[in-house]
Specification:
Chain lengths: 289, 317, 396
């Protein structure tokens, strides 16, 4: 029974990771940009929640925080897109986005202080129910549901809409898409903004689990990078699989092999990358990484 | 930078010699704290050089050199505590251990490229970091303290003054730089640059790139190990924090700032990063990371123009 | 490199180099410490984290130290003080240079502070060799004061003592039931568990099991909480601080353990801003620590009022540790034969007991504080959560 609870927990974690990683993956896939400011965007979302409802949270307040975070994230993403477009080369982009991340997080430290802030779940969802005979926080169940819904939504958006098709084509062969006369620049900025918005929303939704504090952006960025690389760059399905896997490694893996808990994540990532360098579900049409 | 193996005229050596002389003179004019800072900068610059071998010259961006740096540092500290305070012995031991570790891990790691290589080296770095955290032999999370001051030769007088330690660090740094520069100008270096620019084409020409990449990886590991022994010599204390992701990331960023591929540029980048992180942080009331971020962003936009102007004055690359 | 220096440039460089040589302001190979000026304020160093995850502790410590200075007109031992501050950062990479800088560059005659144990271990040799006293105001690793060097003193705690103080009490409360032990997987976590286990088992306690969680990276404690539930333990003893404390306590309640299994810990679990973040989840947690802002003595009430007036928040144990470090230096400098590090260090052992907000304490043979540890319980007092003092856990 304990194992099932742990698996369920891994799925909750996976849901958060998917939310955060999918934007990172798409941005890399379509723009070939390594966005190391992604963790900082997540933190923007988390601190938005802190700013809007530090202690007393209402359902409406929570929803407002989600929307506000989405807007803040989208703006940040668009700004980052503008800054990164003229910069060529992964390493220079890494330098740029890391610099931006340092600036943004320091500004937030100055505004919100350096202590740990807890973000409470909305009322009604802050209870625990019996699952498999044990108390389990309802909020985490909600997260699993949200993650699944988002995955489905994104899948439909990518497969069934015109924009989705253009996006998939741009990931596979951007120059061809441009040759067809479709302005990819707007698409790219849009993907950046949407991905960042998702990450910021992730900051609010994951708030009850992870809180808000300095240094959290590094942790989240690292996890997102691992998810993206394991799953395969530029692919939503890859991000989902990667997120589920990483979630399980952190939950089930730690439960089964507690002595090696600190090593599990990177050992798993290293092993997967050595066997499948392009990731487990790379985007169709993408050349070998 | 020209690729010819014969330097065109002795005038070429003027600036390096003057630079080294200027560095060597510093202990006579600076107090102990700035000189220790100088030792740290030189040790870190040697680590950055090792990253440049892989990232700048061979086109393999790495986040794992901190692992070999740490291996060298811990080896030097263990040798110093349990065996001899001789810096030469510590250097050799550190270099050997790091090179072997690099060879063993590199055999698997250099099969990958690009961002995958980046993430795999990150994994190597983080796993080594965790190992240092967990292994009681190297002190676990508390680190390894109690390393006695180095002496140059076994049985020689210990160098307790920071100026003398600085001269040792400078000597090893210069020697390392010369070795690396020479290797990068050789046909081996040309192969590495070929791998960076167009590996499939090189393979089509019949060049076996895997052994070349592995050799570069082992060499970079050895250089990082040497840098680690220098770090241990000046700090006399090694902790898992010295192998953390931060160290690897800052080393990589120093290469980017200084110009990947040129050898002296990343060394200047290293100096800049250490100065901003360690020295200026106090003056800006703990807002060091903010300053660092501003420096990084500025470098991305300003430096390419500067580098372009420098290159045009020097003539064809 | 192909940059050629024109002849005039070479001359300029030669002139500059020559003038640098003649303008020797200091030297790193002469081996003599430039002596402190006889007149003028005494340089005292304070090295605490101003950036990074430990910054909140650094802030508290700076506040505590400065409060003491303010209460004494900016003087220690009757001498005017120039306080030199240095940023310890997150670990020894930045911390050790920051601490030694205060000695080599700022010529401090004494230095206080240091949160991180690894930094303390890395820096101590430099202080011993430079003959400058280091008064550690937080770092708890048992080995920091090993060897009882005249230059290394500690006003905070040892990991061993603060955890061991709870052993007998938990054994009594748990009775026949077993207790599960859990802490982060690093030196401090291991020392805390080790210290607790010794006195706990000596008092007849039974250990149900032990877990060490990955340090600094664990956000989700569910797998460990499940293990605890499955072990049949009747109570839990843990050590967590900072974000991990918030996560652990919150999830302890969310997964239903708080209702059935009493939670014991060293006081860092519920000290300072983490208590606010934990909210109701922390209620009922019993912790051991050498301070609580609820200590009901006139000395503490006076201190809490002064701290609250100055900084608008209640003091934490970190503030008190730094406050006492200033008190130690005050007494030592007054007693010292000369305003030098060596003279000050010589007399620190003779300053006698410190009248601290935490109670009276004095240095033991290892230069650590011999002090009372309090059993505290988290309770809601007029809408705010505080660490109520239940009783003293016996002299150490």
């Amino acid at each position: 029974m304990q194992v099932l609870i742990t698996v369920l927990n891994g799925l909750a974690l996976g849901a958060i990771l998917f939310l955060i990683a999918v934007g990172l993956s798409l941005v890399f896939g379509i723009m070939d940009v390594l966005n190391l400011a992604h963790g900082a965007v997540y933190l923007i979302g988390a601190y938005t929640a802190v700013a809007l409802f530090a202690d007393d949270v209402t359902a409406g307040g929570f929803v407002l925080a989600v929307l506000a975070a989405a807007v803040a994230g989208a703006l940040a993403g668009a700004a980052l897109a503008g800054m990164s477009l003229p910069v060529r080369g992964h390493l220079d982009q890494a330098l740029l986005t890391l610099g931006v991340a340092l600036i943004v997080t320091e500004v937030m430290n100055a505004v919100f202080g350096t202590e740990v802030h807890a973000i409470p779940p909305p009322p009604g969802l802050d209870v625990s129910v019996g699952v498999f005979g044990q108390a389990y926080p309802v909020y985490r169940l909600v997260l699993v549901a949200v993650g699944a819904a988002l995955a489905l939504g994104l899948h439909l958006a990518l497969e069934r809409t015109r924009i989705g098709a253009t996006l998939r084509a741009a990931v596979a062969d951007r120059q061809m898409v441009e040759a067809l006369g479709i302005p990819t620049r707007r698409l790219v900025v849009g993907v950046f903004a949407a991905g960042a918005a998702l990450a910021a929303v992730g900051g609010v939704l994951a708030g009850p689990l992870l809180g808000a504090q300095p240094g959290l952006d590094d942790t989240v960025l690292l996890l997102a990078l691992v998810v993206v690389v394991i799953g395969g760059l530029g692919s939503v399905r890859g991000a989902l699989l990667g997120a589920v896997l990483v979630g399980q490694v952190q939950a089930l893996g730690v439960a089964l092999v507690p002595g090696a808990a600190s090593f599990l994540l990177f050992a798993a990532m290293g092993a997967i990358l050595l066997l499948r360098p392009a990731g487990l579900l790379p985007a169709r049409g993408m050349a070998q990484a | 930078m020209s690729f010819s193996a014969v330097p065109p005229g002795r005038g070429r050596l003027v600036v390096p010699v003057v630079a080294v002389a200027a560095l060597a003179v510093l202990p006579l004019v600076l107090g102990p704290y700035p000189i220790t800072l100088g030792s740290r900068i030189l040790a870190f610059a040697l680590l950055v050089l090792s990253v440049d071998i892989l990232t700048g010259v061979t086109g393999l961006p790495t986040l794992g050199q901190a692992a070999y740096f740490g291996a060298g540092a811990y080896t030097a500290a263990l040798v110093g505590i349990h065996w001899t305070g001789s810096a030469v012995v510590q250097l050799l031991a550190g270099v050997v251990v790091a090179a072997v570790l690099a060879l063993v891990t590199g055999a698997v790691v250099v099969r990958t490229r690009g961002i995958v290589f980046l993430m795999v080296t990150l994994a190597v770095g983080e796993l080594t970091h965790q190992a240092a955290n967990s292994w009681p032999v190297v002190g676990g999370t508390n680190g390894l303290a109690g390393m006695p001051p180095i002496s140059v030769l076994p049985g020689g007088p210990p160098l307790t003054l920071s100026g003398f330690v600085y001269w040792w660090v400078l000597a090893v740094f210069v020697a390392g730089y010369v070795v690396v520069a020479h290797a990068m100008r050789s046909p081996f270096g040309r192969t590495l640059r070929g791998i960076r620019d167009n590996e499939p084409r090189l393979r089509a020409l019949g060049v076996r790139t895997y052994p070349a990449k592995l050799a570069a990886y082992a060499m970079a590991g050895a250089v990082a190990g040497a840098a680690g022994t220098l770090w241990a010599a000046q700090a006399r204390f090694v902790a898992p924090a010295d192998l953390a992701f931060d160290v690897a990331a800052f080393a990589l960023l120093s290469v980017v700032i200084g110009g990947a591929g040129s050898l002296w540029g990343p060394c200047l980048g290293a100096a800049l990063v250490i100065l901003v992180r360690d020295e200026l942080s106090d003056h800006v009331d703990g807002r060091g990371p903010l300053l660092l971020g501003v420096v990084f962003v500025a470098c991305v936009y300003v430096l390419p123009r500067l580098r372009g102007r420098l290159r045009r004055r020097k003539g064809a690359r | 490199m192909d940059i050629h220096l024109s002849p005039p440039s070479k001359t300029i460089l030669a002139i500059v180099t020559a003038s640098l040589l003649t303008a020797c302001s200091g030297s790193s190979i002469s081996g003599q410490q430039t002596p402190q000026q006889a007149a003028g304020p005494l340089a005292i160093g304070l090295v605490v984290p101003l950036s990074g995850v430990y910054a909140p502790l650094g802030e508290d410590m700076t506040n505590g130290f400065k409060l003491y200075l303010d209460q004494h007109g900016g003087r220690l031992g009757g001498k005017e003080i120039a306080l030199k501050s240095s940023d310890e950062g997150e670990g020894p990479q930045t911390g050790v240079p920051a601490a030694t800088k205060l000695v080599t560059q700022d010529k401090a005659v004494a230095v206080a502070g240091i949160v991180n144990s690894a930094t303390a271990l890395g820096a101590r040799n430099a202080f011993i060799e430079s003959k400058v006293p280091l008064v550690i105001a937080n770092a708890g690793a048992n080995d920091v004061t090993a060897g009882a060097s005249p230059y290394i003193w500690r006003t905070s705690f040892t990991n061993n003592d603060v955890a061991a103080s709870l052993g007998a009490e938990v054994a009594e409360q748990a009775g026949d039931g077993s207790v599960y032990l859990i802490a982060p997987d690093y030196a401090a976590g291991k020392e805390m568990i080790g210290g607790f286990k010794k006195t706990f088992e000596a008092a007849g306690g039974k250990v149900a099991g032990e877990s060490f969680t990955p340090f600094g990276t664990t956000k989700d404690f569910q797998p460990f909480l499940s293990t605890i539930k499955g072990s049949g333990a009747k109570a839990v003893f843990c050590f967590y601080s900072g974000a991990e404390a918030v996560g652990f306590v919150t999830q302890y309640a969310q997964f239903g353990l708080a209702d059935d299994l009493p939670l014991y810990a060293t006081g860092f679990l519920t000290e300072g801003s983490v208590l606010k973040a934990q909210g109701g989840a922390a209620t009922g947690a019993q912790t051991s620590l050498h301070y609580s802002d609820q200590i009901d003595t006139p000395r503490n009430k006076e201190f809490v009022a002064a701290y609250q007036a100055a900084y608008n928040e209640p003091p934490t144990v970190f503030a008190v540790q730094a406050y006492d470090a200033a008190a130690v230096l005050d007494k030592a400098i007054a007693k010292a034969a000369a305003p030098t590090g060596e003279a000050i260090a010589k007399v620190i052992g003779e300053i006698g007991p410190i009248d601290s907000p935490r109670g009276q304490w004095s240095f033991d043979a290892d230069h650590d504080p011999t002090q009372p540890y309090y059993l505290r319980k988290v309770e809601d007092r007029a809408g705010t959560l505080v660490n109520v003092v239940v009783k003293k856990l016996g002299q150490d």
